[in-house]
Amino acid sequence: MRKRKITPKEKLDMLAVGGFTRIPNILIAKLVAVPLNGTEARVILLLCRLTFGWANKENDTPSIALSLQNCVDTLKVSKSSAQDALERLTDSKIVTRTELGVGRGYD
To answer: In which region does residue 78 sit, left (phi positive, over 0), alpha (psi from -120 to 50) or beta (all else)?
Structure first.
């Protein structure tokens, strides 16, 4: 018996089991042109997951509250590594930092 070929749509459906995050192509195109270290890239992926993955939008600009401790806990990195990565991303204007009610967050 011959095996049936799997269509591209079926491949995508198999990959999407458990969900997926749709990231705009323009964002990916811009990010691949920027030299990022591993922690910075992981912070960007975390932000994408928490914004685009949950379809959180505020005035057409994806926005979430992300604390330094949340980065440390989720990425399993030291506090200084997470802080350095967030500072480099904000200095280069890839990520913006805003004041929130009690503390500060990153968008």
So the answer is: beta
pLDDT digits (tens, 9 = 90+) for 68-105: 898 999 999 999 999 999 999 999 988 888 776 554 55
Q: Distance between CA atoms of 82 and 39, rounded to whole angstroms?
A: 7
pTM: 0.70
Based on its alpha-carbon atoms, the radius of gyration of the chain, rounded to whole angstroms, reads: 17
Which domains occur in the chain, in start order?
8-106 (1.10.10.10)
Torsion angle of C-alpha atoms 101, 53, 84, 69, degrees rounded to 10: 50
List Cβ<8 Å contacts ≥24 apart for 19-23.
19/53, 21/48, 21/49, 21/52, 21/53, 22/52, 23/48, 23/52
User: pLDDT by residue (tens digit) across 38-66?
Assistant: 999 999 999 888 887 665 555 555 667 78
Phi, then psi, of 43 in degrees rounded to 5: -65, -45
